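Tokens for chain A. Residues wanted.
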């Protein structure tokens, strides 16, 4: 484990930015299936290697009734596709493309696949959700948040 010295408490040091991000996150989630929200946040957190957010969102998913089996399969969703609906697989593919955007951008086929399963406004909120979890991951990693402390 990497030991870090004291780091900035982002919420206290930049309360307006923190509150704005909370509002953006809440607006992104609006109308999206809560199970899908957690799957997206889990996958992005896995890709970004954010243990703090991964712990938080797997805990939230369990509390919401998500099965251990599906939680274990998120990391390998492409090989274990039968555990997820086509809509969830489309959302996970979009999550990966946006999270790893520097690699290949968002391929047209990935975008079209998501657009087949989400109405335009829902797709925009899904994208916003992916943006917010990537931001939360970067905050947690940059400020050395400790997994399991869930300081919401």
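Reply:
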């Amino acid at each position: 484990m990497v030991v870090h010295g004291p780091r900035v408490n982002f919420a206290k040091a930049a309360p307006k930015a923190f509150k704005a991000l909370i509002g953006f996150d809440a607006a992104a989630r609006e109308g999206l299936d809560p199970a899908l929200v957690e799957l997206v946040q889990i996958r992005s957190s896995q890709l970004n290697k954010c243990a703090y957010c991964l712990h938080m969102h797997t805990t939230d998913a369990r509390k919401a009734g998500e099965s251990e089996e599906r939680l274990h399969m998120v990391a390998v969703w492409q090989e274990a596709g039968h555990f997820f609906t086509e809509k969830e697989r489309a959302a996970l593919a979009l999550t990966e493309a946006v999270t790893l955007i520097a690699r290949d951008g968002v391929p047209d086929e990935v975008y079209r696949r998501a657009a087949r399963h989400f109405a335009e406004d829902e797709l925009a909120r899904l994208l916003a959700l992916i943006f917010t979890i990537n931001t939360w991951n970067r905050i947690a990693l940059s400020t050395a948040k400790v997994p399991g402390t869930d300081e919401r």
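Residues 81 and 124 are 24 Å apart (CA to CA). The chain is about 70% helix and 0% strand.
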